[in-house]
């Protein structure tokens, strides 16, 4: 079993993800090989909350240019975690 801190890489802090906080939904960048069950268990263990639902999506990297050189940002996996009513993650409060 993987360490939960290897599965959850970092939270996503954008305008859209901040609007989802009103619906008790939190957004994270997660390990590309992690499945929904692993993500659920990792969030519950790290933040001591109860997870109701996990939605995941694979985000393709964008092509970027610097002068005549072309590169690509890395692909990543994003998870939107819905918590059960009454549970909150303190990391996101006050943003």
Automatic annotation (TrEMBL):
UniProt keywords, alphabetically: Ribonucleoprotein, Ribosomal protein, RNA-binding, rRNA-binding
One MF annotation (Gene Ontology) recorded for this entry: structural constituent of ribosome
Keyword Ubl conjugation: no
GO cellular component: ribonucleoprotein complex; ribosome
One GO term (biological process): translation
Complexes and interactors: Part of the 50S ribosomal subunit. Contacts protein L29, and trigger factor when it is bound to the ribosome.
Function description: One of the early assembly proteins it binds 23S rRNA. One of the proteins that surrounds the polypeptide exit tunnel on the outside of the ribosome. Forms the main docking site for trigger factor binding to the ribosome.
HAMAP family noted in UniProt: Ribosomal_uL23_B
UniProt similarity note: Belongs to the universal ribosomal protein uL23 family.
The name this protein goes by in its record: Large ribosomal subunit protein uL23
Record organism: Thermosyntropha lipolytica DSM 11003
């Amino acid at each position: 079993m993987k360490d939960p801190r290897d599965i959850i890489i970092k939270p996503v802090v954008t305008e859209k993800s901040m609007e989802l906080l009103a619906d008790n939904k939190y957004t994270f960048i997660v390990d590309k090989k992690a499945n929904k069950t692993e993500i659920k268990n990792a969030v519950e263990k790290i933040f001591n909350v109860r997870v109701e639902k996990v939605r995941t999506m694979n985000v393709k990297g964008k092509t970027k240019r610097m002068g005549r050189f072309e590169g690509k940002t890395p692909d990543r996996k994003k998870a939107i975690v819905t918590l059960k009513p009454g549970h909150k993650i303190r990391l996101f409060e006050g943003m």
